[in-house]
Design brief:
Layout lengths: L1 H8 L18 E12 L3 E12 L2 H21 L7 E12 L16 E14 L5 H11 L3 E8 L3 H27 L1 E16 L6 H6 L12 E15 L1
Antiparallel strand pairs: 1-7, 2-4, 2-5, 3-4, 6-7
Helix pairs in contact: 2-3
Length: 240
């Protein structure tokens, strides 16, 4: 009794034996498949900018605003609504005087500002694809001096994604059925489903071509978008 009391006071844990009730692991079959749907784009997104430089911040901003107003007026002439024009980025950066780096020179207290750079980046949504080349050329003529890029899109992208997912799921089920027959097992039920999808957008490298265009529409080819979806199914299986 004294020994037992000492054990309790000392906090020695008491270990009890129990039967191992771990259940056997459920046998499973995992299959993955990919579905691919191609679709012609119905929307283009063109990104361009106006960069202005001046010794005065107010003057740099004024010049930028004047040029961007001309660009937006040109877009309205091309039947681009204001809802389709979005400012992507607006930055103001000071310019500093460069100092010669000579050994032994003590660092100055603060660099001298000699000017400012104002950069206004705008993205335009174009729904009439035959106007893409014209829009690019006209905004550059109106004063935009920075072409950031072009990419294609779909207004009803979700429906195309669902079609690709449906295709992937059907292929995964078919693969699971073939494998179960070959392995002489039966598919009991689906334990889990994982899915994912993305759009493969063709890269468009045409900034220099657009900047150098002087007459006629900039040649544009929309091609096709590829929508890929993947599905992974985990089945519980049992012997036949």
């Amino acid at each position: 009794m004294v020994a037992l009391g000492l054990l309790v006071l000392l906090g020695v844990p008491v270990v009890t034996l129990a039967h191992d009730e771990t259940k056997p692991e459920t046998p499973t079959l995992t299959v993955s498949e990919t579905g691919v749907v191609t679709h012609a784009p119905d929307t283009a997104f063109v990104t361009f900018g106006v960069e202005t430089v001046s010794k005065s911040l107010a003057e740099a901003q004024k010049r930028n605003s004047t040029v961007m107003s001309k660009v937006k007026d040109r877009l309205r002439d091309l039947q681009i609504n204001k809802e389709q024009i979005q400012t992507s980025s607006f930055t103001v950066s000071p310019q500093y005087r460069s100092l010669p780096n000579r050994p032994g020179d003590a660092p100055t207290a603060s660099p001298e500002i000699i000017g400012y750079v104002v950069n206004n980046i705008v993205t335009v949504e174009i729904r009439a694809l035959d106007k893409v080349g014209t829009v690019i050329e006209e905004v550059l003529k109106a004063g935009a001096n920075s072409f950031q890029g072009l990419h294609w899109g779909l207004r009803e992208e979700q429906a195309v994604r669902l079609s690709a997912l449906k295709q992937a799921a059907g292929k995964a089920r078919e693969k699971a059925s073939v494998l179960s027959e070959a392995l002489h097992v039966k598919l009991v039920r689906v334990l889990s489903v994982n899915e994912g999808s993305h759009v493969v957008r063709p890269a468009v490298a045409m900034a220099r071509m657009a900047m150098e265009a002087s007459a006629g529409d900039v040649p544009i080819s929309s091609g096709e978008l590829k929508i890929e979806a993947s599905v992974t199914l985990v089945y519980e299986i049992a012997p036949k």
